[in-house]
Design goal:
Helix content is 2%, strand content 53%. The protein is built from one helix and 46 strands. Strands 2-3-20-22-21-16-15-6 form an eight-stranded mixed sheet, with no helix packed on it. A five-stranded antiparallel sheet has the order 1-42-41-40-39, with no helix packed on it. The longest helix has 11 residues.
């Protein structure tokens, strides 16, 4: 039910290593090839010997190996993503698309749309809705997907669906006469021709060993990363494979960093064209650590991973062992070539800790360490040239605090750190060799995600905080803030909104794709799981209250002159389902087609008129309990 603010009844309402390092990594001769910090293994036996000597935490179970922590996933623009005006017959004039970090570099998600149709992973199915006009919205096809669907890409009349599964094959290993069964996790990329939306046609399947990690799409080229802990069959390792339909598998070359790591996981980068059904995917495999971050621009791929090196002495501090190693791969005409490797002190927060501007890479890190007396934290900003050499340094920002959010916009960086209050730093990067702090603003609370409104305003979403009776900090409700940074030396708060009691949450805090901002309409929509205070009127004691939960979406009109004005709220939870963040009625995404807001939960898609808040339509999805789509990773 949409609850509409009366005063507004008439108001309109981001590790691809997409790095297919194809022929650039092909070795012309024997021996080990070295590219920067990357060294190529010359044989399977060399990989086995290396892992036995260096990998930690490998346990053998029934002849197979298992490495803790290797099974999970990891998973917004320099300017707000423009509304698409793609000409589609009887389609919306304008419509919102996935909130991505870099314009032109799409990020996989479980929901896409083209202004007329919505494509969504629902349980075990790919569902296509003819969603425009909203009053006539209906499902036009349901296609069952083998495996557990994760995310998808849309490229005109082609659709790519990623799904996880398991495969068992019989393998003969050294010293064994009889074949041994091997079961491995695999990722399928199903490529569909959707020229007829009522009957999607599966034209090709790409299969990659390992679990889905991350993916990007630039033009018609898809780059996907899968990862897999080393799988041992007795004393022999099973190497990563890439397959197209029933063709013989490709065994990618395997590289490792020269710098020793604490743990090793196989990351396989594969690239394929959405349209070239005869092409062979390029693929390379890398032994990297668990804590890996991917940033992709239109020109380069950057892979950063955390490394604990030897303790170093820093001014006024000692005992810092943290550094981040970053590899750069150039993208040029569908070819990806390894270029250079760099190092910076500290660790990355997420993909928004990295940004490319001109030919330089900008990096924000947090350093953690200890002295004999105490532990410490502080934050740094670095600028690296194309050779990945540090040319600009700004260190020791906000001692004893860590980065909660970072956003590079043009020649500025907006940085949020936190311990007791939320300092928003405005950092000058106009001279890449001399980064400097322009100004800072301290307010209670903190932001987990920053999004540019325009050149002079930034939206932040996070949590409110307050001092408690013990002198510490208590986390309160969900907080949205609008910052005015037109005076870079004196940033200001235009407005703040706090939603709910402690425990109130939003998926947008962890996944920027859940954050919808439409600049042309000044519209902000976020999913909210709210804890609400309810008074007990029948109690004999004053001030007696209890709490209840609510789940849905909040929609705001956002203007620099006025701040946030609540347009209304939408909830899908009217059928008595539990009010939990993972309930089937929890709103997880939203999009706009013309003047209609579409909110999406696992169970249904609800269409609301932005002008008056009336419900236009609702389409039920083929949801089954326990089959909520897994979101694409943030980092």
């Amino acid at each position: 039910m949409w609850k509409w603010s009366p005063v507004l009844a008439v108001v309109l309402g981001s590790l691809v290593i997409a790095a297919i390092i194809g022929t650039a990594f092909a070795s012309e001769g024997g021996g080990n090839e070295t590219l920067g910090d990357l060294q190529k293994f010359s044989s399977k036996e060399e990989i086995e010997a290396f892992l036995k000597e260096h990998a930690q935490g490998i346990e053998y179970r029934n002849g197979y190996s298992w490495m803790p922590g290797a099974g999970g996933q990891e998973t917004a623009t320099d300017a707000p993503a423009p509304m698409s005006t793609q000409a589609v017959p009887t389609a919306a004039r304008d419509y919102s698309t996935t909130n991505v970090q870099v314009a032109g570099v799409d990020e996989a998600d479980f929901l896409k749309n083209d202004g007329r149709y919505i494509y969504v992973i629902s349980g075990e199915s790919l569902v296509v809705l003819e969603a425009f006009p909203a009053k006539d919205a209906k499902i036009v096809s349901e296609t069952r997907i083998e495996g557990t669907s994760t995310a998808l890409f849309l490229a005109g009349d082609r659709l790519v669906v990623f799904a996880a599964g398991t495969e068992e094959e019989m393998t003969t290993v050294r010293g064994s006469v009889a074949p041994i069964p091997v079961q491995r996790v695999v990722t399928h990329a199903y490529i569909y021709d959707i020229g007829d939306r009522s009957d999607p046609d599966l034209v090709r399947t790409q299969t990659f060993t390992g679990s889905y990690y991350n993916a990007r799409m630039i033009g018609d080229d898809v780059y996907v990363i899968t990862r897999e802990a080393p799988v041992w069959i007795r004393d022999e390792i099973a190497l990563p494979e890439v397959r197209t339909d029933g063709d013989e598998p490709i065994l990618p070359d395997v590289y490792r960093p020269g710098t020793p790591l604490q743990n090793y996981v196989f990351y396989t980068a594969s690239a394929f064209s959405v349209r070239n059904d005869r092409g062979t995917p390029d693929a390379e495999t890398f032994l990297l650590g668990y804590d890996t971050t991917l940033f992709v621009s239109q020109k380069n791929l950057y892979i950063g991973y955390r490394h604990m090196g030897a303790a170093r002495t820093l001014p006024d501090y000692a005992g810092s062992r943290e550094e981040t190693i970053i590899h750069r791969f150039a993208i040029d005409g569908g070819r990806i070539d390894y270029q250079a490797m760099g190092r910076v002190p500290g660790h990355l927060l997420n993909q928004f800790s990295l940004d490319e501007y001109g030919e330089n890479l900008r990096v924000a890190t947090t350093v953690e360490g200890w002295t004999r007396e105490r532990s410490f934290q502080y934050n740094n900003v670095y600028v690296l040239n194309p050779a990945m050499e540090i040319i600009g340094t700004l260190e020791h920002i906000a001692p004893d605090e860590r980065i909660y959010a970072a956003r590079f916009v043009g020649d500025r960086l907006y940085l949020v750190t936190f311990k007791r209050v939320d300092p928003l730093f405005v950092i000058d990067l106009s001279d890449p060799r001399r980064p400097g702090i322009l100004g800072e603003l301290k307010i209670p609370g903190y932001s987990d995600y920053l999004h540019p409104y325009d050149a002079d305003h930034i939206i932040g979403i996070g949590k409110e905080t307050s001092e408690n009776t013990w002198g510490g900090v208590s986390v309160e409700g969900l907080k949205i803030a609008l910052f005015d940074v037109s005076d870079v030396n004196n940033p200001k708060v235009v407005d703040t909104v706090v939603i709910g009691e402690p425990g109130t949450d939003s998926e947008a805090l962890r996944d920027h794709k859940a954050f919808l901002f439409v600049r042309e309409k000044n519209l902000l929509v976020i999913p909210v799981s709210e804890i609400r205070r309810v008074e007990n009127p029948e109690s004999r004691y004053p001030g007696s209250y209890s709490t209840t939960t609510w789940q849905g979406a909040y929609a705001y009109l956002v203007k620099p002159a006025d701040g946030f004005t609540l347009l209304g709220t939408v909830t899908h939870a009217e059928k008595g389902s539990p009010y939990t963040w993972d309930s089937p009625d929890a709103v997880r995404r939203s999009l706009v087609m013309d003047d209609t807001l579409y909110t999406v939960s696992a169970r249904s898609i609800i269409m609301t008129d932005l002008a008056d808040g009336s419900r236009v339509n609702e389409v039920n999805l083929p949801y089954r309990w326990g089959r909520t789509p897994t979101p694409a990773p943030i980092w």
